[in-house]
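User: Some background: our group keeps a shared notebook of sequences we're curious about, and every so often someone picks one and asks for a predicted structure to add to the entry. Today it's my turn. The entry only has the sequence so far, pasted here. Could you supply the structure so I can complete it?
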Amino acid sequence: MNGSITQNKKTGQWDFVFNGGIDPLTGKRKQIRRRGFESKRDANDEMTRVKAEVLENEFLDLTKMTYGKYMEEWFQERKSRLQKSTFEIHSIFYRNVIKPRIGHLKLQQIAPIQIQKFVNDLVNDTSYSEHTVHLIFRIVSASLKKAKVLKLIKDNPSTGITLPKIKRKEINVWSVKQVNFFIGEAKKIKRLTRCHIGFLMSIFTGMRQGEILGLRWKDIDFETQTIFVRQTLTQNAEIKAGAKNEASIRSIHIPSKLMEELRTHRKQILKEKLLLGSSYRDLDLVICTKSGKPMIPRNFRKEFYNLTEKITLPKIRFHDLRHTHATILIQQNVNVKLISERLGHSDIETTLNTYSHVLPDMQKSVSDKLDKIIGM
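Assistant: Of course. Here's the predicted structure to add to the notebook entry:
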């Protein structure tokens, strides 16, 4: 554990630096340095004292490591894996909720009962919804799962924790009649928003908002009438390669009516490119501003709400167009597995759980068919 003491030529004060060994969490060599001592002797005395502290704790780092210390490193890993907006949200929950409550606990000594109490306290705090509690717990659970993989802990104390039940929110959807009314009335508007093609894509494909706003012309095969979901646009209007999950990177076959609308829209985009020339920012986006820049998501949604109000249809969220698409397909007896793949759900259970409100009506149609085909 050698060290060196040097005098700063600019300030005349003394600094020291020494090798603090290997950080057990990162595997990287630690350098410990201090600056601003009045004399070389003061610097040497402080270096000796700090070295003694390091030696005393050298073999105790893992057992003394707090959950907060571990989380600082874990978040460095997460930064490269999560969307910027998601990382920021997780960081805020860690700083404001997780760290103050359990950051002081020794990582190797965290017990399931402490995690359960942490969750129970959040549930009893009326500031947090069931969804928020689940999100916060997922952050803690994922971090502890990684700690076990790194062999920092023997067992994951978040396993088997009881979470609050999430009250299912009622999904608002348009009927087929309302969808047709929306499409028909929109065409009558003189200055129809350039975002209209995006609304149609949601109705005909069930794509997520980010997938629609991130779609490029090269992701559309006009011959096979197929859209390929390969990138998305974040809420901060940043383009991100890939999609929400592996299942979300998919191909979607689309009807001829939507293809016709896309061809018409492409002509408009080509005119704008020619008009602006080199000033046009060509990102190959299907939905963009007149100068080619990505559409800001909140502005996109605002255009949808304004159009809905003009047409005097019941107000629904833009995301509910995706729900409308799925509901219509289920009502038309389309195989749920195919719907799940079309929506980019990670598994069919997600689809069944999300659209369970439609299934009772489907059960009635099944029993009616059985009456017709089975004679007694």
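Suggested note for the entry: The two ends are 91 Å apart (CA to CA). The first strand starts at residue 3 and ends at 7.
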